[in-house]
Design goal:
Layout (H helix, E strand, L loop, with lengths): L17 H4 L37 H51 L1 E3 L21 E8 L5 H7 L11 E9 L6 E5 L5 E4 L2 E2 L6 E2 L2 E4 L9 H12 L5 E5 L1 H11 L2 E5 L3 E2 L13 E2 L2 E5 L1 H9 L7 H21 L6 H14 E4 L5 H8 L10 E5 L2 E4 L2 E7 L1 H12 L31 E5 L12 H11 L5 E7 L6 E4 L5 H11 L6 E3 L6 E5 L25 E2 L16
Parallel strand pairs: 1-14, 2-9, 4-15, 18-19, 18-22, 20-21
Antiparallel strand pairs: 2-3, 3-4, 5-8, 6-7, 9-14, 10-13, 11-12, 15-23, 16-17, 20-22
Helix pairs in contact: 2-8, 5-6, 5-8, 6-7
Length: about 575
């Protein structure tokens, strides 16, 4: 029918459903022309507004003209909507393209290098009860003068071509549940055993030697520094990050500097007795250092007595930076993150497995929820080198205690652990009779501070034979390990490995599957240098006096200034 059967509704054309047009229904509704209006006229029979009674525009002609105007209006609306949609599409695509290009720009800023220069055999930590693992990152400060900016900031232009030294070395440890963290520094003048390293750029091999830990950077790059740390501490290190003089200045400016404090006026300058100096000149009291002055603070050594004093000053600086980032909401504020991302990607060199913006961002977020009072910064316990008073050595027992706490994810702030260890699972494979199990025993008691215990593998193999393991034998392979471990290569030997560990009193958590062995293998580590049964040592403790510990929530600490550098 051409007309509606409802009185007064008038004649209506068929209007396609909005879904056919692809737009919103409301854009195509036919609006009433007035109160009670229909397509033909007002409800009381009066002509629509704008038309005179009896005029030529009345009747069917008027309806056609009104329909034509409505159709023209709809076509205009469609043209406008298509234009708006096109513009929006271009804006969205343009923004996405710009975002992608900026993301790639940041990724291209990042300089990457190989994670390690060799295999230290350091064991990855076991997950806790929730399946989480700790995070360990080695932070390195390079004294490279290879660029004009670094020469201007660090002086010594005559050393422009000299291999760089790792003057700052800190291990950032974040607990498995991300509820506590610590930073442990090793003084740059610490003499250690450096393992064989291969430079990834030149492929040059540097033989193992005993030298200062800051020289590792020149013996294969940051990967050699990481390998040395793992060999010294037994701590598995996930990543490294390195920054030079210019990078420190840029990063300091990006976060707005750091709040520090000195007890007396300080001027770290050359004296009649000692050359050099950072140039730091400050009045006594709390203040903010940034830019080049921040670099001077981090490099000051003589005015803070020695390299250990410098480490404490660096910890003060780092604590302040973390506090500032938290207060500025830098972990969530988009603008702040963009500024930091631009600066960080230009300033840092990182190990290749974290060489993207996303991975660096994820890494930074690991500290976001750690309370400042649960962040502890300290220096490795040390003793003076008896052959050189200007050098130091790791304190044999006290340093080992610190590394054991880091390995076992025990908080260094003296408070209790924040997560529970994962209970050891029972072996799925039953053990064979003791007399049928072949066992190799290796001597891994060598450490950076102490040599191997002679005959240790033979002694432990003898203990196993006394317990019925007739096929136990010593292996001449030297495999230094901080912690004693029992390894097995495949599932069918799992039960045998657990049985061997139980016989020796070795914890079930120290039984590991490994492709490095062909049968059940016991590596007697530095934690078991004497005795027939694995020692059940007491929980390690930490003396704050031995480490110059500084808590992240401490905002009142000030550095004491050595008298010759006061003014």
């Amino acid at each position: 029918m051409g007309q509606s059967s409802v009185q007064g509704e008038g004649t209506r054309r068929r209007v396609r459903h909005a879904g056919e047009r692809g737009w919103d229904d409301s854009l195509y509704e036919e609006k009433p022309l007035g109160k009670g209006a229909t397509g033909g006229g007002d409800a009381d029979g009066a002509p629509p507004a704008g038309l005179t009674p009896g005029g030529k525009s009345g009747g069917g002609d008027g309806r056609r003209r009104r329909g034509a105007r409505r159709e023209a209006g709809r076509r205009g609306k469609r043209r406008i909507l298509r234009w708006v949609a096109s513009v929006l599409s271009l804006l969205i695509l343009g923004t996405a393209a710009a975002g992608y290009l900026y993301y790639e720009h940041l990724n291209n800023n990042i300089r990457k290098g190989e994670r390690s220069a060799g295999d230290s055999k350091a064991q990855k930590p076991e997950p806790n009860a929730a399946g989480q693992t700790p995070l360990n990152v080695l932070l390195i400060g390079s004294d490279s003068r290879s660029s004009k900016a670094n020469q201007q900031l660090g002086g010594s232009r005559d050393k422009a071509d000299a291999p760089p030294l790792a003057d700052v070395q800190m291990l950032l440890h974040v607990s498995a549940d991300r509820k506590n963290a610590s930073v442990v520094s090793i003084p740059r003048d610490t003499r250690v055993q450096v393992p064989e390293c291969v430079d990834p750029a030149t492929k040059k091999t540097y033989k193992a030697t005993r030298t200062l830990i800051n020289e590792t950077l020149a013996r294969g790059g940051p990967g050699c520094t990481l390998l040395t740390w793992e060999s010294l501490t037994g701590v598995y290190i996930d990543h490294w990050m390195m920054v030079d003089f210019a990078g420190v200045v840029a990063m300091s400016d990006a976060v707005g500097g750091a709040d520090v404090c000195v007890e007396q006026n300080v001027w770290d300058r050359p004296t009649a007795m000692v050359k050099g100096g950072s140039g730091l000149k400050l009045k006594a009291g709390p203040q903010t250092v940034e830019g080049e002055q921040a670099l001077q603070w981090l490099r000051t050594r003589h005015a803070f007595y020695n390299d250990m004093g410098r480490s404490k000053a660096q910890h003060m600086y780092m604590n302040s930076v973390i506090r500032k980032l938290k207060k500025q909401n830098a972990f969530t504020d988009t603008g702040q993150l963009m500024d930091l991302a631009e600066t960080a990607t230009k300033s840092l060199q990182v190990s290749e497995e974290i060489g993207t913006v996303k991975k660096l961002f994820d890494l930074g977020m690991q500290l976001k929820d750690v309370p400042m009072e649960r962040i502890e910064m300290l220096t490795m316990p040390w003793i003076q080198d008896p052959y050189d008073q200007n050098r130091v050595l790791p304190a044999p027992e006290k340093a080992d205690n610190v590394w054991r706490m880091v390995r076992d994810d025990i908080p260094l702030d003296g408070k209790g652990p924040t997560s529970k260890p994962k209970p050891a699972a029972a072996p799925k494979d039953p053990a064979a009779p003791a007399g049928e199990i072949g066992v190799l025993v290796q001597n891994g008691t060598h450490t950076a501070q102490e040599g191997s215990v002679r005959g240790r593998a033979t002694d432990v193999a003898g203990v196993l034979k006394d317990k019925g393991y007739a096929r136990a034998s010593q292996d001449s392979t030297s495999n230094p390990m901080a912690k004693t471990v029992v390894r097995y290569p495949s599932a069918e030997l799992e039960g045998d490995a657990y049985a061997v560990a139980k016989s020796l009193g070795i914890p079930a958590g120290s039984v590991k599957k490994s492709t490095d062995v062909s049968g059940v293998t016991v590596v007697v580590g530095a934690d078991w240098r004497t005795g027939d049964t694995f020692p059940k040592s007491a929980a390690p403790t930490l003396s704050r006096e031995d480490t110059d510990a500084l808590n992240g929530a401490n905002e009142t600490e000030c550095m004491d200034v050595y008298a010759p550098y006061r003014w």
